[in-house]
Write a structure and sequence with these properties.
This protein has 117 residues and is of the alpha+beta class. The chain has one domain (17-116). Helix content is 29%, strand content 36%. The chain has three helices and six strands; from the N terminus they run αββαβββαβ. The chain has a six-stranded antiparallel beta sheet. Keywords: Signal. This is NADH:ubiquinone oxidoreductase. It comes from Pseudomonas pohangensis. Residues 1-18 form the signal peptide.
Length: 117
């Protein structure tokens, strides 16, 4: 019994880790907010590589959260990372008219499933 409790306590920090990141970028006439929800990417790789966009000329803010916030106009479920087998859900906020372009990118580029809200 003590072993079980000890193992559970050791696993608590893993459960508390953020599994999503909100990326907000802004620049000349561009204001984009999206959230990347981890599905199958190793936690450290997700934190260090997937939530660090390099956008030239853009101010980028990244915050880690347990799950993507409500209010998205659409999501790309099970988006496949290029040339890898890892999956993530991409939530889009802001200009809902962008959904037409994002749906095509979701289905063709990321091989995901688009859902509009």
């Amino acid at each position: 019994m003590r072993r079980c409790i000890a193992l559970c306590l050791l696993a608590l920090p893993l459960l508390a880790q953020a599994e999503a990141c909100v990326v907000h970028s802004s620049g000349k006439q561009v204001d984009v907010k999206l959230c990347q929800q981890n599905v199958s990417i190793p936690a450290q790789m997700f934190h260090d590589n997937f939530c660090q966009p390099q956008l030239s000329g853009q101010k980028v803010e990244v915050s880690f959260v347990e799950q993507c916030p409500t209010g998205a106009f659409g999501t790309c479920h099970n988006a496949r990372v290029t040339n890898l087998t890892y999956l993530e859900d991409l939530y889009y906020y802001g200009v809902a008219s962008d959904a037409r372009v994002l749906k095509v990118a979701c289905e063709q580029q990321y091989k995901g499933v688009w859902e509009a809200f």
